[in-house]
Description:
There is one protein chain. With 224 residues, this protein is an alpha/beta fold. The protein has a domain at 2-116 and 203-220: Rossmann fold, CATH 3.40.50.300. It is 45% helix and 14% strand. It has helices at 13-24, 31-40, 44-55, 61-72, 90-102, 117-125, 168-171, 173-183, 190-198, 212-220, and strands spanning 2-6, 28-30, 81-84, 109-114, 127-128, 138-139, 148-150, 153-155, 204-207. A hairpin with a 2-residue loop joins β7 and β8 (153-155). Bound molecules: adenosine monophosphate (AMP). The site of adenosine monophosphate (AMP) has 16 residues, from α2 and α3.
Amino acid sequence: MNILIFGPNGSGKGTQGALIQQKYGIPLIETGVIFRDQIARGTPLGALAKAYIDRGELVPDEVTIPMILSRLREDDCRNGWVLDGFPRNPAQAAAVWDALAKEKMPLDMVIEIVLDRTIAKQRIMGRRLCPMDNNHPNNVAIEGMHPVVLGGEDFCRVCGSDGLITRADDLDEVAIDRRHAIYYNREDGTLGAVRFLKEKIPVVEVDGLPGVKEVSTAIMEQIH
Ligand code: AMP
């Protein structure tokens, strides 16, 4: 099962990707996580990516496209994958579409989580990362996803870890607006990538407004 998942930053796309990963036992490949890992390890790729990420801009296609295509060729992807954060523009969509066709790798499903831009922004600013697991959802702006508060300190609502992290780029409104401007751009941005794919195969649109469980049920019902 090879799946692409789309949604603006703040739509819960990462959480839903993780739920699909768990249920189907396939790797979740998140472009943003790969870049942040490279930054943490101090690699040349990380240094290059950091400058773009900090400004809320896309890392250049010449770097991102080959990085993702080679990741999809790794052994653990043989039984399928969920790709989150790629493609983010029509050029990346065309590249992945052609590469999959060339390698006879089917694209089984494309999911689009639809969410209003203002709500997506509030959700980003409320996001808190668990230091133990990137996919433990905590959000001070979403009912039902609040961290546990004890003695004035926040703890992960899933595993109880302390030291929840707020990503610097999650509090930077200018960077958020820039990221959303890329996502919601139907011409050259991510919705342009979705438009490209819609001309090729059916795209499953899911309303991102309800809670994690409802969105997950809506997605899982469509996976066959
Ligand atoms: P994310 O964690 O998905 O919000 O990604 C964080 C940042 O990584 C983005 O704001 C971009 O700077 C960079 N990035 C992630 N995916 C891509 C992509 N497909 N192409 C270029 N840059 C990307």
